[in-house]
Design a protein that fits this description.
single chain; 125 residues; mainly beta; UDP N-Acetylglucosamine Acyltransferase, domain 1; 7-stranded mixed sheet; 5-stranded parallel sheet; globular
Length: 125
């Protein structure tokens, strides 16, 4: 595991890293829920992983309620620079997520996905 500073997280205790994980500069992990990261995962600069959320309804938000949903990232994944990963998602193994993507739904295994919102572009052979 290698983490380039600065690196920011809420708790740190809810992050599980497998072997050979690399975080480049200025990554953020909001971890009030579990974040599981597989082996051989590369994060480029400015990646943001958010398990934290807030209610959509304004009355609930006034109560300062925080919600959190876990995130899982498989093995052998490359996450491009400035990617945002939203709460409650799974990114499958052997994937590449293109720079600047906003991941809003699960990404299956073995694909290149990119965009805002992030979508599968093609399979990786």
């Amino acid at each position: 595991m290698w983490i380039e500073p600065p690196f920011y997280c809420d708790y740190g205790s809810n992050i599980t890293l497998r072997d050979n994980v690399y975080f480049n500069f200025n990554c953020v992990v909001l971890d009030p829920a579990a974040v599981l990261i597989g082996s051989n995962v590369l994060f480029r600069p400015n990646v943001q992983i958010y398990t934290a959320s807030h209610p959509v309804g304004y009355l609930e938000r006034r109560k300062d309620l925080e919600l959190a949903l876990p995130i899982e990232i498989g093995s052998d994944v490359w996450i491009g620079g400035s990617v945002v990963i939203n709460p409650g998602l799974r990114i499958g193994s052997r994937n590449v997520i293109g720079a600047g993507s906003v991941v809003t739904k699960d990404i299956p295994e073995g694909v290149f996905a990119a965009g805002n919102p992030c979508r599968v572009i093609r399979k990786i052979e």
